[in-house]
Structure formats: structure tokens, C-alpha cells
Amino acid sequence: MTDLTDIALPHALAEARALAAAPTVDTSPLARAAALFDLGAHHRVLVSGKDRVRFLHAMLSNDVSKLEVGAGRWATFNSVQGRTLSDVRLFNLDDDRKTGRLLALLEPGARDAFVEGLDHFVISEKVFFEDDEGGALWLLAGAGVDAVVAAAGGELPASELFAHRPSTIGGKPVHLLRLDRSRREVGDLGLWMRIEDQEAVLGALGDVRRGDALELEAARVESGQIRFGLDITAANIPLEAGLKDRAISFTKGCYIGQEVICRIDSLGKPARALVRLEVAGTAPQPGQDLERDGKVVGWVTSVRPTAAGASAFGYVKKRNHDPGTELQAGEATAVVGEPL
Using only C-alpha atoms, what is the Rg of the chain? Predict the structure, then answer.
């Protein structure tokens, strides 16, 4: 077994282990109607200061300089060796040079690596990080999310992934964000509000079912959406997890870890890749070694049990991750699918 406790975030790993150990989790209700999920454990960091855009642009893997108000972007914060210290969904709330702010949305437990890691590089720049201690975040996921919000009088953001806008629901201010938490493509709406406004906002949405963490995790794995702190960690470079066209700009100029990432990209494929796995037999646990001809060639990350075995993600070394390749995951057979 690969010990994921050394590299994974505790919150993400605990939810992954709970899902892997659970009976089959039914996600079909999400195909019929939207549900609400509490994302209050996710960190929300407000970045301010007149140098905030220039500083983040120089630090993160994606282009921050062209991020317009109402738009967002997925990016990674890397070590000089190109390892992924954190990922972030970054939203431009206000572009006023002096008083504007960006919202950084982070996985539970990823805040210190992001904030303290970036703060280490602040020399004379005017950039400040403030935790959103008085805020709450809920996720509206599943079929008909836009209709639910519209019926409650909310003004919807544009349809593009990470688009966002301020609105009013239940007479209270709420910021709506297009997110990709439950599935790889756009389809979720985040509701960011003050804690004291939760009851009014959620109540105005009507009789929306409350979902739980296992259902959200199962939907995520089913759709092929990766999660930082589990499917990508400080042990990986972003290219291994398929983030080349999703969270990395190859035209923006220098950022931390760029030299390593660009060099590996120029060589073709990284040494290993995160792929889908269809498992026949006993569902593996996160961290289960993947073997071929008796040799360890990778490990499992996310696992969703199914009637036949499991759908899973895993890292597999080059020359072993062609689709259709059969691997062993304990006593079960894992067939390699497409890269994530």
C-alpha cells in the first residue's frame, strides 16, 4: 500500500476512505433535481492590495493579469521543483487597483500552503491575505440549479465555468459562482454569503434536498473530476493530473516551477499519469498499489464502489497506462481507461 497520509490532505482522504468503504452510493437523484451541499470547510481567502494581480500572476500557473471582473480561473501554486503545493479557484471580485479584491477558493486544509507559501515571496509588494471568517459557502448541484436560483429571484452569472456575480436571494446579498465541484464541466453553483444570512437565503430556495459528503464525492468520481489533496498533491506536478489545458498557461511568462513544468511538457508525457480505472472485484482502498507482472506501477487515489467492483482514479507509470491495460489492485483487476 502507498501511504497517502504522508501526501494527502486529511479532510479529502477521510472522505475518500469513507466513500471507498461504503455500499454503492446512489447519485441518480442529482440527475433529477438539485441538492444543497455544505462547503463551509473550504477555505475562502480574500486577496487585496494594489500589487495583488501582478504578484499572483508571477506566482501561479495560470494567467491572472487578464482575469476580468465576473470571471474566474483554475490555477496551481507550485514549488520550484514543479510540485503542486496547492490548487486554487481564483475569482476577480473588483478590479479597482487600490480597493479591489480577488477570492481564492481552496480545499479544506490547503490554506496554509497557499497563503504562507505565497507570503514567503512577498518582499515590498502591497498584497494582503484575509480569511473569510464570517462567510458561509454552499453548493447547489444537480439538475435544474439555474431554475432553482431564478425562481428564488437570483440573478445568474454567465454560463462559463468560474463566472460569478453578486445577487440577492431572500432579501439577502449572496455571491453566485459557477463551480466544478461535483463534475468536471460547469454545472454547479456556489452560494457565498454571510453566516447570518444562511437561513434566509437557503429558505428562499424552496424545498431543496440536502445532500451529504459521500453523495458529492461519488458524483465527483463518477464525472471524472479530480480533487486536490487526494488526486493531486505535493507529490505530483500538475501535468501528471491532466491540468495542462485546464489550469496552466504556456504563454503568460515566468511563474514558480515553470521551468520544470515546461521542460517536462516539451519532452512529451510525464513519467506517470492520472487515469480512470474500472475495477472488477473487491473495491480497492485509496493508496492501494497497482501492479503489472508483479511490479508496482502506480497507486489508487479516488474510489467509488459499484455493483461490479469500483470506478476509480489512479496514477500509473508511463508504458503501463494505455487504455485497456490490465493491472492488479490487490485481488481485483483494474482496467486502465482514459487519462483524466
Answer: 20
Distance CA 280, CA 64 (A): 43
Check pLDDT > 90 for residue 80: yes
What are the tens digits of pLDDT across the range 28-46? 999 999 999 999 999 999 9
CA angle 288, 318, 316 (to 5 degrees): 15
Is the domain covering 1-26+213-223+271-340 a CATH 1.10.10.10 domain? Answer: no
Within 8 A by CB and 6+ apart from 309, the residues are 278, 279, 280, 281, 282, 283, 332
For residues 52 and 93, give the distance between their C-alpha atoms in angstroms, rounded to a whole number: 12
**pTM of this prediction?**
0.96
Residues across the chain: 340
161 pLDDT tier (thresholds 50, 70, 90): very high
- Quickly list DSSP for 138-167: EEEESTTHHHHHHHTTPPPPPSSTT-EEEE
Delimit the domains of the chain by residue range.
Answer: 1-26+213-223+271-340, 27-212
**% of residues, the chain, pLDDT over 90:** 94
Three-state SS string across 86-132, please?
A: EEEEEEECCCCCCCCEEEEEECCCCHHHHHHHHHCCCCCCCCEEEEC
Helix (H) or strand (E) holding 84: strand 84-92
Q: How far apart are CA 316 and CA 297, in angstroms?
A: 6
